[in-house]
Amino acid sequence: MSRWIGTANKGFAPYAMEELRRLLHDIKFQQLSSGEVFSFETELNHGAVLSAIAQHEPIFLRHIQPIERTIPLSGMADDLQELGDVVRHAGSQFAGKRTAVHIRRVEGTVFPYSAADTKAVVDAVLLELGSEPALKQPEWIISIYATRDQLLIGWGTPQELLSDWPGGAVRFQREDGQVSRAKFKLLEAERAFGLDFAQYRSALDVGAAPGGWTSLLLERGLAVTAIDPAELHPSLLAYPRLTYLKKNASDVKLAPDSFDLLVCDMSWSPMQMCKLVLELQAALRSGGIAVITVKLMHRKPLQTIREVLSRLQEAFVIRKAKQLFHNRDEITLWLEKK
Ligand SMILES: C[S@@+](CC[C@H](N)C(=O)[O-])C[C@H]1O[C@@H](n2cnc3c(N)ncnc32)[C@H](O)[C@@H]1O
Q: 119, 183, 185, 295: which is the annotated catalytic residue?
């Protein structure tokens, strides 16, 4: 038996729960924060749940943490003391590791301490245990979730928790002169899928305007062909490595095998997007990578995604489908050209 907290993008928890229900069968859910955070209990043990999730990672599950310990909250200093004791008793597994402490809370919790105060207490215990408190690139994460009247505590590696950000809420710093917020989606995809865009030479960006994705790829050193009938941000036009085709993508003819990366963020009906990407795929070399967003316009996202994947499989191997933190009503696909 094991207990867990799952987190999805706001409004998408029901789909994450549906995916988990299919994956783990005998499972009972409880809502913690509406549409977003839930707890669940299954007959499967901790290791079996982790391996099921590693093999078939649910698209809408942004973050997961086991519930190893529960502390009833009093709203007094005892709560912090008990938290310190729990970590101290869990002890040896943190020794010698870089350990991050992530704290989340529901609105209205009686737990009165700020994340900074809580972290200071846990960090002091970690130092006692020979662990190194870490903010970035931790090997272990202690995840603490304050409900109204309980602290739910668990730990795991960033891979097991599916993210090294609290609740999978990835935050990037907004830059001066950033062309669009959409840039964060591609940045997050690069991290989440373990891609390094700098290793590619030439990219095709379909539906590129105003140019957030194009700007990231140019910054990574790629030559970029950006297609969009709408205007690209003027700051991009100075890049000699940019080719801007101010056209509808269906009117563009491209030489075969001319790109090793194809990105597409068109906010279009999923089936039209598939048709267009399949028309353009000959321009991508075999083994090349595609990163594509799929707009979830209909009521049944899981079915839409199944249909989209089955069409795209004509030309691509599906490496991963994931709703990223920066995706709104959409998911991101990582594909490899056959
Ligand atoms: C969500 S925006 C893209 C944002 C972009 N990724 C960024 O980072 O700035 C969608 C773009 O797709 C373009 N688009 C829609 N249909 C298209 C088509 N058939 N051909 C080319 N571009 C298209 C729209 O003009 C719009 O600029």
A: 295
Reply yes or no on whether 295 is catalytic.
yes
- Classify residue 167 as left (phi > 0), alpha (psi -120 to 50) or beta: left
As a CATH number, domain 2-168 is 3.30.2130.30
Tell how far the Cα of 13 is from the centroid of ligand 1, in angstroms. Answer: 28
- The tens digit of pLDDT for each residue in 314-334 reads 999 999 999 999 999 999 999
Identify the CATH number of the domain defined by range 183-337.
Answer: 3.40.50.150
Beta-sheet pairing, 223-227 with 202-206: parallel
Neighbour-count burial for 273-302, b at 16+ CB within 10 Å, e otherwise: bbebbeebbebbbeebbbbbbbbbeeeebe
Q: Which residues contact 288 (CB under 8 A, 6 or more apart)?
A: 259, 260, 261, 262, 336, 337
Cis amide bond preceding 210, omega within 30: yes
Nearest to 330, CA basis, from 233, 188, 198: 188
CA of residue 265 to ligand 1 center, whole Å: 6
Q: How many helices (H) and strands (E) does the chain have?
A: 9, 16
Chain centroid to CA 303: how far? 21
Give residue limits of the domains in the chain. 2-168, 183-337
pLDDT digits (tens, 9 = 90+) for 128-165: 999 999 988 999 999 999 999 999 999 999 999 999 99
CA-nearest residue, atom 2 of ligand 1? 266
Those residues whose C-beta lies under 8 Å from the C-beta of residue 251, and which sit 6 or more positions away, are: none
